[in-house]
């Protein structure tokens, strides 16, 4: 197929009207949080054979979008107003991770202990560095020959 044949196709006409096939940088699609949550809800609600695939094809999405968006929703980085999140989606999120609050609290305590230990280690290293510098200074003065008595 030649370039003149390409212009006879609908895609070729659109490209020619836009100033050529690569006239500008492709625009990356962006999705709002409410859209992501809506699609996750629809995807989870699809139970019939082929419904999930049809939804993804209709929206031009991949199943990896759904898995990334679910992870973001579950970690709390996908923010939206509570009204935008369907009640079924909230129930599924809570049911899927019942001990999430307890786990978060346990990890916060562990982090606080680790930070305290890190502070102690830094202080000890600082003291050891000062002690090394002092000993090095004393060593240099002891190694120098005594001044002559003349």
Q: What best-fitting shape do the alpha-carbon axes yield?
A: elongated
Work out the helix count: 7
Number of strands: 0
- Poorly predicted runs are 81-85
| Strand coverage percent | under 5%
| Rg for CA atoms | 32 Å
Distance between the termini: 104 Å
Secondary-structure-derived class: mainly alpha
The total tally of domains equals 2
User: What does the main sheet amount to?
Assistant: none
What's the mean pLDDT score? Answer: 77
What share of the residues lie within helices? 55-70%
Secondary-structure element pattern, one letter each? HHHHHHH
Write a compact overview of the structure shown:
The protein is mainly α and 150 residues long.
Commentary on this structure:
- The chain contains seven helices and no strands.
- Helix 3 crosses helix 5.
- 4% of the residues are buried.
- The protein is mainly α and 150 residues long.
- It folds into two domains: 69 residues, no CATH class; 43 residues.
- About 3% of the residues have low confidence.
- The radius of gyration is 32 Å and the shape is elongated.
Q: What descriptors fit this protein?
A:
150 residues, mainly alpha, 2 domains
Secondary-structure map:
Blueprint: H1 3-6, H2 10-17, H3 33-45, H4 51-59, H5 63-75, H6 87-96, H7 100-143
Helix pairs in contact: 3-5
């Amino acid at each position: 197929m030649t370039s003149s044949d390409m212009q006879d196709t609908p895609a070729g006409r659109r490209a020619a009207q836009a100033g050529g096939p690569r006239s500008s940088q492709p625009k990356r699609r962006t999705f709002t949080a409410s859209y992501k949550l809506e699609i996750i809800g629809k995807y989870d609600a699809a139970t019939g054979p082929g419904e999930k695939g049809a939804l993804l094809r209709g929206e031009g999405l991949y199943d990896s979008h759904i898995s990334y968006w679910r992870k973001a929703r579950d970690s709390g980085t996908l923010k939206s107003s509570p009204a935008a999140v369907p009640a079924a989606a909230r129930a599924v999120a809570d049911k899927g991770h019942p001990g999430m609050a307890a786990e978060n609290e346990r990890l916060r305590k562990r982090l606080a202990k680790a930070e305290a230990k890190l502070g102690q280690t830094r202080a000890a290293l600082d003291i050891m560095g000062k002690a090394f510098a002092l000993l090095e200074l004393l060593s240099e003065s002891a190694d120098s020959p005594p001044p002559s008595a003349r």
